[in-house]
């Protein structure tokens, strides 16, 4: 597939996830997505969903978090880059203890994914711990 074909395929999938989310969140708009992602212009979202402009991996993860879908369903090649996280987590805990490992994880996540992604993970973790 060409880059343009891949971009179009990803755009179709993102648009589908947007429409699915809109069923349960009727007031959702491209503008609300742009505001949430702190983009300069709503046109960037429109271009992603039409396939005219590529979305970065970071913004794809941020969009996936907002619309509540798995980014790997849009861009499966990201799976090739993923690390065996359970193995890494076990090594960190063994080497640094749970508190040191948690701090190192948060620091790395902030450097890699940015503040919003880390907040989303922390919210989900808090939800899991409350169960």
Question: Describe it for me?
Answer:
With about 130 residues, this protein is mostly helical. It has two domains: about 80 residues, lambda repressor-like DNA-binding domains (434 Repressor (Amino-terminal Domain)); about 45 residues, no CATH class. The protein has seven helices and no strands. The chain is globular and about 45 Å long.
Short key terms for the protein model shown above:
single chain, 131 residues, mainly alpha, 434 Repressor (Amino-terminal Domain), 2 domains, 0% strand
Oligomerization = single chain
Low-pLDDT parts are: none
CATH architecture tag of the largest domain? Orthogonal Bundle
Assign the CATH superfamily of the largest domain: lambda repressor-like DNA-binding domains
Q: Could you tell me the mean pLDDT?
A: 82
Number of helices: 7
The portion of residues forming beta strands comes to: under 5%
Radius of gyration: 17 Å
Please provide the count of β strands. Answer: 0
Write down the CATH topology of the largest domain.
434 Repressor (Amino-terminal Domain)
H/E series? HHHHHHH
Distance between the termini: 44 Å
Give the overall shape, derived from the CA principal axes: globular
- The total tally of domains equals 2
| CATH C-level of the largest domain | Mainly Alpha
User: Largest sheet at a glance?
Assistant: none
Helix content: over 70%
Helix/strand/pairing category: mainly alpha
């Amino acid at each position: 597939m060409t880059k343009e074909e891949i971009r179009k395929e990803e755009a179709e999938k993102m648009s589908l996830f947007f429409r699915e989310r809109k069923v349960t969140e009727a007031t959702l708009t491209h503008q609300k997505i742009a505001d949430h992602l702190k983009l300069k212009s709503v046109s960037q979202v429109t271009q992603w969903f039409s396939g005219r402009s590529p979305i970065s991996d970071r913004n794809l993860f941020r969009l996936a978090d907002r619309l509540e879908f798995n980014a790997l369903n849009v861009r499966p090649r990201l799976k090739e880059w993923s690390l065996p996280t359970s193995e890494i987590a076990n090594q960190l805990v063994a080497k640094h203890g749970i508190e040191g490992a948690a701090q190192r994880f948060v620091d790395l996540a902030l450097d890699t994914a940015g503040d919003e992604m880390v907040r989303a993970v922390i919210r989900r973790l808090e939800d899991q711990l409350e169960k």
